[in-house]
Amino acid sequence: MEVIICQDAGEAGRRAARRIAAVLSRTDEPVLGVATGSTPLPTYRALAELVDAGDLDTSRVTAFALDEYVGMPVDDERSYADTIRRTVTEPLGLDPASVHVPDGMAENLVAGCQAYEDAIREAGGVDVQILGIGGNGHIGFNEPTSSFASRTRLKTLAPRTRQDNKRYFAEGERVPTHCVTQGLGTIMDARHVLLLANGEKKAEAVAAAVEGPVSSMCPASVLQHHPHAVVILDEAAASRLR
Ligand code: F6R
């Protein structure tokens, strides 16, 4: 694992964007793995700047999101489909038909998960996967105890994750209980992975992921086994590293 510590989230976003652009530029049919949440937003802004400056061509980029809430209509602004549209597809000028998000509304969720795995494989696999980390060490919505061999599947959100995501919902509104997420095995198949974290709240999870034992109690720790894993942190998120 390569760990890069930046002064602040803005610098981290710019460093991440340069790394991602370098990987995407090396291939004719680039496949980008995208995360939602607040952490990758500076990276998406920095990527959009590269596109606007003509330094990154996204016309042939296919993208796959990590996860989606179950039962959340795609036109709801809290859905990950809509979040990816606003924060990734439009600013980076991607073709909406080339941007995929797991279907949390599928009548048959199991078949939908298999179709998502098939779509990633048919696209040639993910070249570079962007990841945030939950306070409990989750990546995607692979909560603690997730199998390292897991594939895209239905998961129950951990109480801490639902608590953390309450900020996107109105007072008294129920945070979804279930999601569809790429598995840890799916994520590990990406040719490059880039884990981002900002702020003191993530410091403990980052230390467990980077320096702790590889354990399903901290799902992100599986990235220690990835041959091309880069961790980009601001100083606060790096504050518990030894
Ligand atoms: C989002 C995702 C999650 C988030 C994580 C951190 O698609 O898969 O693993 O990356 O919960 O969220 P933020 O960045 O909002 O702290």
List the SSEs and their pairings:
Blueprint: E1 2-6, H1 9-25, E2 31-34, H2 41-52, E3 62-65, E4 67-69, H3 80-89, E5 99-100, H4 109-122, E6 128-131, E7 153-156, H5 159-164, E8 178-181, H6 184-188, E9 192-197, H7 203-211, E10 229-234
Parallel strand pairs: 1-10, 2-3, 2-6, 3-5, 6-9, 9-10
Antiparallel strand pairs: 4-8, 7-8
Helix pairs in contact: 1-2
The structure holds fructose -6-phosphate.
Put the structure in a nutshell.
The chain has 242 residues and is of the alpha/beta class. The chain has helices spanning 9-25, 41-52, 80-89, 109-122, 159-164, 184-188, 203-211, and strands at residues 2-6, 31-34, 62-65, 67-69, 99-100, 128-131, 153-156, 178-181, 192-197, 229-234. The active site is at residues 67, 136, 138, 143.
Strand content: 15-25%
Question: In the CATH hierarchy, what is the architecture at level 2?
Answer: 3-Layer(aba) Sandwich
Small-molecule binders: fructose -6-phosphate
- Regions with pLDDT < 50 over 5+ consecutive residues? none
The N- and C-terminal alpha carbons lie at a distance of 15 Å
CATH class category: Alpha Beta
For the biggest β-sheet, the strand order reads 1-10-9-6-2-3-5
Q: Main sheet?
A: 7 strands, parallel
The tally of domains stands at: 1
What is the gyration radius calculated from CA atoms?
17 Å
Outline type: globular
Give helix and strand order, one letter per element, not per position.
EHEHEEHEHEEHEHEHE
CATH topology annotation: Rossmann fold
Domain Glucosamine/galactosamine-6-phosphate isomerase: 11-226
Protein name: Glucosamine-6-phosphate deaminase
Catalytic activity: alpha-D-glucosamine 6-phosphate + H2O = beta-D-fructose 6-phosphate + NH4(+)
Organism: Acidipropionibacterium virtanenii
